[in-house]
Specification:
The structure holds 2 protein chains of 2 kinds. Chain A is mostly helical. Chain A has 3 helices and no strands.
């Protein structure tokens, strides 16, 4: 977990510095989109960690939609 | 080839589609059509000939009016800015799910056929890493790769078909009765699902140089897809029969395993699977490029490269959580993704075409 977060922090710093080099109008939008993707990544990763031996995403969707396999 | 301008030709765009078509086609079309239509699975291609012609007409009409304009901008122009944007978000979610699904299927297939002892994280991670590296060079490099690989894949595909031919039992195709008409129609849904990937090509259509002869190229693509779709059903159905075929996860590759030269050279499937990985790789790279291009167009960002790495990391974890086994993947595909593909890849273009006609935009 610690290693993954260190990796994410390093990646974020690197990518944000790359974004800051771009033209001004793009910077704000790019940073917002980057953090949206980052949040999604963390959510999906936490799900992966918590449900390693549990249900997959498709199983949960089937249960939610009451689909019999 | 206009490399300096970062544009690709219409022909290259078509070779890209041909390449990404192979992988889902051999995996999904034979098993779906045979489970729905049984022995009449091969007849599912007949409705598809007419539906495909209609689909071709729709895309030709859109292309004639909107040359070298991205799909998002076409939607915004025809449906209006807000609905066009909503469609853009829907397309982005669709591509992301399909990307995760296809990579997971690839990993499951490799683990069950070629390398059973490799960790899936390693397999998927390597795939995304290579995709990320290739995508740094943009669509031009992908298009050039596709030009070469599409020819190799076509040769391998037809050579496989010829080599398997002696194992085909023609009685597996018959008898068929009038009661098979409706199942054959239902079976064509499986083919439509894979054809619907054509929509992906239009997402980066602003990067494609459209010449006047685009209609004849599109028609050739249509004929080619009909032949490939028919062969992917005929070969495994003829070798295994409907009962075995409908329960197979990778029927076409399984039929290739039956190839034998004078009972001395056998099991050449391992070599062929290696080439099939190329199609999966191209699919991953192209879907990622399309998703990123949608974000670029939607938010009007000049450079999207810094966002690709985090997007691929997100899809990497999505790939790991989307399903636990091949069984779940098949269920997901049959119950949810087929309908999703048809709606987004097939019905939406028709809806755009109809609205465009009403509003006199097309």
């Amino acid at each position: 977990m610690v290693v993954f977060f260190i990796f994410l922090i390093v990646l974020t710093i690197y990518q944000i510095s790359t974004i800051l080099e771009r033209r001004k109008e793009d910077v704000k939008k790019s940073i917002i989109i980057y953090f949206v993707f980052l949040s999604l990544t963390i959510i999906v990763w936490l799900y992966y960690k918590d449900n390693f031996y549990g249900d997959s995403l498709s199983t949960k969707i089937f249960r939610l939609l009451n689909i019999k396999r | 080839m206009d490399k300096d301008r970062g544009m690709i030709s219409q022909y290259q765009s078509i070779t890209l589609y041909v390449l990404i078509f192979f992988s889902p086609c051999i995996r999904y079309i034979p098993s779906f059509t045979s489970s729905v239509a049984g022995r009449a699975a091969w007849m599912s291609i007949i409705p598809m000939i007419f539906i495909g012609l209609l689909y071709l007409y729709v895309w030709n009409s859109i292309m004639a009016k909107y040359k070298s304009i991205s799909y998002l901008n076409i939607m915004k122009d025809i449906l209006g800015s807000k609905i066009g944007s909503i469609c853009g978000y829907i397309f982005f979610i669709w591509i992301t799910i399909m990307l995760a699904y296809n990579v997971r299927v690839y990993a499951e297939r490799i683990l069950s056929t070629a390398t059973p002892n490799i960790n899936m994280i390693l397999l998927v991670g390597m795939f995304f890493l290579v995709s990320f590296y290739i995508l740094k060079s943009g669509i031009v490099v992908l298009a050039r790769m596709s030009e070469i690989f599409s020819i190799i894949m076509i040769v391998i595909f037809f050579a496989s078909c010829v080599m398997v031919a002696p194992n085909i039992d023609v009685t597996n195709y018959f008898p068929i009765t009038y009661k098979d008409i409706f199942p054959a129609f239902k079976g064509s849904l499986g083919i439509i699902t894979i054809w619907s990937y054509i929509s992906i090509l239009f997402i980066y259509y602003d990067k494609v140089l459209v010449r006047e002869k685009f209609k004849s190229l599109n028609f050739k693509l249509y004929l080619f897809l009909i032949i490939i779709s028919l062969l992917t059903i005929l070969i495994p159905l003829g070798v295994f029969g409907e009962t075995v075929l409908s329960k197979m996860p990778i029927p076409f590759l399984s039929s290739i395993m039956e190839i034998s030269f004078f009972e001395t050279i056998e099991r050449i499937d391992a070599g062929i699977i290696v080439f099939w990985i190329i199609t999966d790789f191209m699919l991953t790279a192209l879907f990622t490029y399309s998703a990123m291009h949608l974000v670029k167009e939607e938010f009007e960002i000049e450079n999207i490269r810094p966002l690709t790495s985090i997007y691929l990391l997100f899809v990497f974890f999505l790939t790991l959580i989307i399903a636990k086994s091949n069984f779940e993947l098949t269920s997901l595909s049959t119950n949810i993704l087929t309908a999703m593909n048809i709606i987004i890849g097939f019905i939406i273009p028709f809806a755009i075409f109809i609205v465009g006609k009403i509003r006199k935009k097309i």
